[in-house]
Amino acid sequence: MSNIHKQPIYASTYNNRHRLFWALGILTVIGVLIAGAWLWLNRNPRPDAKTYPVLGVMLDQTDGIQDFPTLQKNHVQFVYLKATEGASYFDDEFATNYDRVNGSGIRVGVYHFSALIAPRKRNSISSIDR
Q1: Three-state SS for 26?
Q2: What is the spatial distance between Cα 102 and Cα 105, in angstroms, rounded to a whole number?
Q3: Nearest to residue 115, comparing CAs of 104, 130, 125?
Q4: What sign results for the dihedral spanned by CA atoms 117, 118, 121, 126?
Q5: pLDDT digit of tens for each residue in the chain (130 aa)?
Q6: Can you name the residues that pair with 111 across neighbouring β-strands?
Q7: CA–CA dist 81, 53 (Å, integer)
Q8: Of 97, 37, 39, residue with least CA distance to 71
């Protein structure tokens, strides 16, 4: 017999699994980075300007105080601001956003969101003169 040292068939199993683990880990990280970059670049694209030439936004207090000059630089041409909803809701940021949008040159509209569960007389803006 020769002095050839024979290794058991399972001797390299650990090394093979270790390499496979690292290769799959690296491929997963690369895939997540590519998917994240794609999502970041396509996060909120402007609608096609040829199909939708007029761009506007609808804002309420959940959107916070807005930077209207930046919106204007992004070609926003009009803004709808929520003033009231139902019988008792008043938008906390309405007055601030209304004052700021008037100074920016963007057209502004104001809306009331009607709630079906409130009585009709109570479900209107109380500041309207009749």
Answers
A1: helix
A2: 6
A3: 125
A4: negative
A5: 556 777 667 767 888 888 999 999 999 999 999 999 999 888 776 777 788 888 899 998 888 888 889 888 888 899 999 888 877 788 888 888 888 888 888 999 998 888 676 555 555 555 544 4
A6: 82
A7: 21
A8: 97
Tokens describing residue 26: 């690296």
* Pair type for strands 107-113 and 56-59: unpaired
Q: Which phi and psi (to 5°) does residue 98 adopt?
A: -65, -45
Residue 17, both tokens: 């699994």
CB 109 within 8 A of CB 80: yes
Radius of gyration in angstroms for the set of CA atoms belonging to the chain, rounded to a whole number: 30
**What is this structure's pTM?**
0.55
Q: Which residue has the tokens 């090394």?
A: 15
